[in-house]
Amino acid sequence: MTSAHTYTELKNRLHYHNHRYYVLDAPEVSDSDYDRMMRELEQMERDNPSLLSPDSPTQRVGSSPAAHFEKFNHSPRMLSLANAMNLNELRAFDVRCRRALGDVPALEYIVEPKFDGLAVSLHYVGGILHIGATRGDGGTGENITTNLKTIHSIPLKILPRGDAECPDVLTVRGEVMMLIEEFGRLNCRRIENDQPAFANPRNAAAGSVRQLDPRITAERRLDAVFYAAHQADEGRYETQVQLVKGLKEYGFKVNTGRLCSTIEEAIAACHDIEAQRDSYPFEIDGAVVKVNDLHLQERLGALPRSPRWAIALKFKPLQETTVIKNIKVQVGRTGALTPVAELEPVLISGVEVKRATLHNQDEITRKDIRIGDTVIVQRAGDVIPEVVRVLADKRTGQEQVFSMPGQCPSCNSPVEAGIDEAVIRCTNRTCPAIIKESIRHFAAREAMNIEGLGVKLISRLVDSGRVSSIADLYMLSPEDWQNVERMGDKSAANITIALERSKAAGLERLLFALGIRNIGRQSARILTAHFRSLEKLCSASRDELIAVHEIGPEAAESLRVFFDEKGTMDMLTRLQDAGLSTEPMQALSNSRFAGKTFVLTGSLHSASRESAGEIIRRYGGRVAGSVSKKTDYVIAGDSAGSKLEKARTLGIAVLNEAEFVKLIA
């Protein structure tokens, strides 16, 4: 029988390490040690159900879907910010504040980046997360506590630091956001699975936290940053700077800002934030200027919808005007037909955009998009270009209405719409376009990493009849490769070596490479860690799959459909017969990088960045997507960019490729 003291001690230890990893970005234990402690806690709760508490780390994921969200009344109201569209409006805000206060000739401001996320309120009682809710109309929001618990940077229990005491009641407010990098991965997965892409990271975050099934929320890696506290903490702090520092001491990830003594200094700070806009891992759409003194904030008060002591300077959207030259239809690896606009090339935030996704016919009809239209285009979340709207007043009458074809543009087979889907699909499973896209995905760097197997070579292989499935790749002899059109002896030798090397990629990469709907890299990693073999995974029932931590019902259903599909088991058998490993990659016994965080930038010659990242993880290290003060090493290859400059500015150790190879030798 486990004692309550032992249980609480382990639970608090996990809270501490969770905070180190997700908030401070400075882990002290390896992932395997953390997982071991988590399994130990889970076993304690199974053996001693009476010990289970709402703040247990095991309660972040796993609840059943909710039928609906309950309403939650905010006290005080959650206000939104008034916007300043230009610098004159920002200066007018300063004049209004000083005029209202009368006896204050100059004001001190704090300037923060305005993250484009979903506003949430967290209510803690006795230091334990009691309720988390959306803003709603400011007075009433939706209780989404179960979903917010899946976000690891949200403390389930307040962890005071230094002299900070845990208040009996505390309401904390901030933003839930999705990293731009994760937004890109999520949209790529959705497009590959024939689901509509999210327009921007904010919509993705909002859609994620409002899922009725929290397991779906857990599959999407969200983050949260906080900047305000109310109720029991009133009177504890004198300034916004002190309040944010206090929230950090409680264990929250906070939105830090720059202290400015005049409005002109605040304007300069806004300019600096806008200039660094592309360096933030989150989407930001402006800067927030707040009166720093909390007592003066109280004196200024609020309007019905916004405070008088804060304002948001909105940045110019990353959009440009161009013309749609044509609309082509692409066929994906699942047979989905996707319309793509071919554009007059245009630069958006330094990147040339030539194409934009139009998603489906419903989207084209809703926006009334025609060939020849002049349109506003944006890089959604700086990732996927999209058409925002049509400039109808620019039409000449020569524009052409577009409709999706009734036949597959690749094989001329009939197309059909899926049940409850806006997507139409080719009905021919042997369609050359489907086969080509499946092989392209299988060979990609983040999948089996078969170097040299590019789009043109794949097309020649399929068009010549040499390859009709991914298993056929491993059936070709070196002589067969030499006989492929425009394939020299050296290229044939290189592709043979690359195929042979890919056989050792392991189960995790293979699962992702197979292109199963709703199974991305993270899901493949989780499934591999749980089942440890392809045979066990293939035989798992839908309920057994759903029971796996962070695997939702959609992913489970997709897995069963894939494994039950005619021809799947034969293909997997052929891959195994060809020598492909269907076992997990073994972790290296030497955990020299345990607790260390690496960032990779630039091009490497000895290995791809993905392969280098896998080596780091196998040695117990962590690979991050952005440089911070918590980064231990930056590995800089050729053409390293802003990450290298930031590392030098922060004084972080930078290794070139030769030094990294020596480090892992």
Question: Could you describe the 3D structure shown?
Answer:
The protein has 665 residues and is an alpha+beta fold. The protein folds into six domains: 4-60, Orthogonal Bundle (Helix Hairpins); 83-314, D-amino Acid Aminotransferase, Chain A, domain 1 (2-Layer Sandwich), CATH 3.30.470.30; 319-417, OB fold (Dihydrolipoamide Acetyltransferase, E2P); 432-502, 5' to 3' exonuclease, C-terminal subdomain (DNA polymerase, domain 1, Orthogonal Bundle); 507-577, DNA polymerase, domain 1, CATH 1.10.150.20; 597-664, BRCT domain (Rossmann fold). Helix 1 (4-22) runs antiparallel to helix 2 (31-47), helix 12 (432-443) packs across helix 13 (455-463) and helix 16 (507-513) crosses helix 17 (521-531). The longest helix has 19 residues, at 4-22.
Please report the total strand number as a whole number.
24
Give the uncertain stretches in residue-range form: 62-67
Can you identify the CATH class of the largest domain?
Answer: Alpha Beta
Mean pLDDT: 84
> Main sheet?
7 strands, antiparallel
Secondary structure category = alpha+beta
CATH architecture of the largest domain: 2-Layer Sandwich
**Number of helical runs?**
24
Quick gist of this model?
Helix content is 36%, strand content 21%.
Layout of strands and helices, then pairs:
Elements: H1 4-22, H2 31-47, E1 71-73, E2 83-84, H3 87-101, E3 109-115, E4 118-125, E5 128-134, E6 140-142, H4 145-148, E7 169-178, H5 180-192, H6 201-209, H7 214-219, E8 222-230, H8 240-250, E9 258-260, H9 263-275, E10 284-291, H10 294-300, E11 310-314, E12 319-331, E13 336-348, E14 351-357, H11 361-367, E15 370-371, E16 374-380, E17 384-390, E18 400-401, E19 415-417, E20 424-426, H12 432-443, H13 455-463, H14 478-482, H15 489-502, H16 507-513, H17 521-531, H18 534-539, H19 542-546, H20 553-564, H21 568-577, E21 597-601, H22 609-618, E22 622-624, E23 633-636, H23 642-650, E24 653-656, H24 657-664
Parallel strand pairs: 2-11, 21-22, 21-23, 23-24
Antiparallel strand pairs: 1-6, 3-9, 3-10, 4-5, 4-7, 7-8, 10-11, 12-13, 12-16, 13-14, 13-20, 15-18, 16-17, 19-20
